[in-house]
Amino acid sequence: MSFQINRQLAHLHDCDVLVIGGGPAGTAAAISAARMGKDAALVERSGQLGGMMTLGNVAIFMPVGRVTGLYAELVATHCKEFYTWGKSYPRCQFNAVNMRYDCLRRAAEAGVKIFFHTEFLSVLKNGAGEPCGIAAHTREGLGAITGKILVDCTGDAHAAIDAGAAYSTGRPGDGATQPMTLMFEMQDTGKAAEPYIPEGAYRYGSVDELPQGRVLYFDRNNEGRVLVNMTRVRGNGTDFFNAANAELEAMKQMYGVAEYLQKNIFPNHCISSAAPQVGVRQTRQIEGEYKLTADDLINGSKFSDVVTQTNYEVDIHNPTGKGGTEEYPVKFYDIPYRCMLPKNVTKLLVAGRCISADHTAMSSLRTIPTCLGLGQAAGVAASAAIDDGCALKDVNIEKLHAGLKSQGVQFFDDAQ
Ligand SMILES: Cc1cc2nc3c(=O)[nH]c(=O)nc-3n(C[C@H](O)[C@H](O)[C@H](O)COP(=O)(O)OP(=O)(O)OC[C@H]3O[C@@H](n4cnc5c(N)ncnc54)[C@H](O)[C@@H]3O)c2cc1C
User: Fold this and answer.
1) Which position among 217, 287, 373, 414 has the lowest Cβ density within 10 Å, counted as fewest Cβ atoms?
2) What is the rounded CA–CA span in Å between residue 358 and residue 365?
3) Which of 18, 23, 17, 32 lies closest to 376 in space, CA to CA?
4) Rg (Cα) of the chain, in Å, rounded?
5) In terms of DSSP bridges, do strands 10-20 and 141-152 run parallel, antiparallel, or are they unpaired?
6) Dihedral pair phi/psi, residue 400, rounded to 5°
7) Cβ atoms 339, 365 nearer than 8 A
8) Which residues pair with 326 in a beta bridge?
9) What is the pLDDT of residue 402?
10) Pocket residues for ligand 1 (CB within 6 Å)?
11) Dist CA 395 CA 308 (whole Å)
């Protein structure tokens, strides 16, 4: 059974660049478009910017090589001790609350019009059949927001797919995606902490029994906080039932993991916070004008239309949900602009973890710094297309690079 709705939508807003989703990619896209002098708007279903970085409490930048662009601005603010522009640095843990404020402040100061608590529903098309806006659900009900260029930063490619983009899901063969993880934090209380195991929660007696079959936490800060990445729930984050089930399953694991850590490593720490929602690593990849592959990572491919660079490893959490993670190093590689251009769709770019890439390449490019870099490039490219009145696929790459340079982005031959 299916239903159709036919509703008149109030026209809420018109802009140049309309960004859908306010994670690392969306935040960067909106800020960079605004910094290019464009009227930028951003639609976000939650009440904060940062996506997984804040909503998922993934409060750590994985190292990607050179630090430039908006990413460099964030490292300089949140990880001062590691910061040297254009250099590499180790993993950098930050405070998600401070990052949440900083993303919002930067977006507001750039002049981005932010629509919080607003859920993308559908792409609206003009008489020529091209995307020209979105239908969205706001706190006031349904409405339309229009824009000259749309940038899909939902992580799940919701808007691109609605506009007609083809996509793939997960690994070849069975389409299984990397599992979901509820990030949580433990805080040093200064005295022995009493483990809390509520009814239904799991218990783990050994490392092998832990959900990921390993201990993985980050405590590189001066605040006695431990950021724990140890739960693991199989499923696809765009499957309604998988996503709903993961919220309970991950919490059952969280209590057990915390008890394990209290008994074995952190006797004085207790759970101080859990992310507001389970973290989703991988859902869909659009079919773009270029598909980044594992070979590109292994060979360190270079592209004339490079928009961001990384050397973050292949990092595939076991899609079966069992223990084990496939990890191996890669060369410093370029990601080309064409990965953000969905085939057969005009007026819409895709930035963030759902760009065009195979399962292996996605596991490396999904890091926060790379999503920031992709978003920043999308904002500049959208701006260039508007200035030149050209199609997104015809954006002048020299102009795109000049725009990125004006925002502190630089490309290098090697990671360092
Ligand atoms: C558990 C976990 C651990 C990770 N660990 C690390 C790590 O240690 N270091 C690292 O660098 N990276 C890590 N990553 C990867 C990284 O966090 C993500 O890949 C990255 O945040 C993706 O950025 P994005 O902007 O593409 O999407 P997201 O961060 O997913 O943001 C998408 C945004 O779009 C919004 N949205 C979605 N649909 C709609 C809609 N219909 N309407 C309106 N808004 C919508 C969402 O609310 C969200 O704010 C981890 C990821 C997970 C899940």
Assistant:
1) 414
2) 10
3) 32
4) 21
5) parallel
6) -60, -45
7) no
8) 316
9) 98
10) 20-26, 43-46, 51-53, 55-56, 58, 60-62, 119-120, 153-156, 158, 181, 183, 229, 279-281, 352-353, 366-368, 371
11) 16
pLDDT tens string 77-115: 999 888 999 999 888 899 999 999 999 999 999 999 999
Q: Give the residue carrying structure tokens 């720490």.
A: 269
Low-confidence ranges of the chain (pLDDT < 50): none
- Classify residue 219 by burial, with Cβ atoms within 10 Å: 0-12, 13-18, 19+: middle
What is the maximal distance between C-alpha atoms in the chain? 67
Residue whose pair of structure tokens reads 């092998």 in the numeric block: 208
The strand pairing partners of 15, in sequence order, are: 147
Tokens 């926060």 sit at which residue?
A: 368
Site to probe by mutation for ligand 1, drawn from 89, 103, 154, 315 as the one with most ligand atoms within 8 Å of Cβ, is 154
Q: Is the full-model pTM beyond 0.90?
A: yes
SS3 256: helix
User: Over 323-383, what HEC string results?
Assistant: CCEEEECCCCEEEEHHHHCECCCCCEEECCCCCCECHHHHHHHCCHHHHHHHHHHHHHHHH
Give yes or no for a contact between 136 and 143, defined as CB atoms under 8 angstroms apart. Answer: yes
Q: How far apart are CA 181 and CA 257, in angstroms?
A: 12
- C-beta atoms surrounding 68 within 10 Å: 25
pLDDT of res. 90? 84
